[in-house]
Design a protein that fits this description.
222 residues; alpha+beta; three-stranded mixed β-sheet; 8 helices; 50% helix; globular
Length: 222
């Protein structure tokens, strides 16, 4: 399960909270991600990214809310609507993305339960759900202001004041400023500088989820 819950998350304060208040868990913070592991459920993993996204492994949907409620106390500019995605995975003898043997779904296959491997895929899921948030914002703006554009096309004027027109422009510019997609998505995460052998798995998922194509589409629509 992956979620976009905010513009950014304060990982330092969140890590301190986990270490001070949660027993039975281990948290490890790096530059842009915080990993939370359960000592009771060995496969539970929560990867909390600085960019406002959360990716969980082996945590059921009804169990994730308590973690999100804690994390939301340490965010900047929370997302006011639900943005989530899900993907199936299974342990096999290889790493890849392929159709499930019995269900009509695509499935990530892992050859082990290592945190490093899950982290590699989590970076891809994080980028994808962040893009999903941006895509929702763009769709909302287009739906909201299409009637004004149609009115301008048909009548030669819009039924709004000059001040309201400036507000529309400001809202669009604010969305464009928040996204800033070229710089955020052009380069692979620095995590792979230290783990170059894992970058191929991130790239595999990035291609599967059409990350660059979606970035280009959003920039074009903006």
């Amino acid at each position: 399960l992956s979620y976009c819950i905010a513009n950014t998350i304060d990982l330092t304060r969140l890590d301190n909270y986990f270490k001070s208040n949660l027993t039975g868990y281990t948290s490890v913070k790096s530059r842009d991600v915080l990993k939370l592991a359960s000592n009771h459920n060995k496969n539970y993993r929560l990867f909390i990214f600085k960019n406002g996204t959360v990716v969980s492994w082996d945590i059921k949907r009804h169990q994730i809310k308590k973690y999100l409620d804690i994390i939301k106390q340490f965010v900047n500019k929370p997302v006011p609507f639900l943005v989530q995605d899900e993907f199936s995975f299974q342990i096999t003898d290889k790493v890849g993305i392929e159709p499930h043997d019995f269900f009509d779904i695509d499935c990530v296959t892992l050859d082990n339960e290592s945190d490093e491997l899950k982290m590699s895929f989590s970076y891809g899921f994080s980028q994808s759900v962040k893009l999903q948030y941006f895509e929702t914002i763009i769709e909302t703006l287009i739906e909201k202001y299409s009637p004004l554009i149609q009115r301008l096309s048909q009548k030669g004027k819009m039924p709004i004041s000059r001040a309201q027109a400036r507000q529309v422009i400001a809202e669009i510019l604010d969305a464009k400023s928040e996204m800033n997609l070229i710089s955020n998505f052009l380069y692979h995460p620095k995590y792979f500088w230290q783990h170059p052998t894992l970058e191929e798995y991130f790239t595999m998922l990035e291609r599967y989820l059409h990350i660059q194509r979606r970035v280009n589409a959003i920039n074009h629509r903006l």
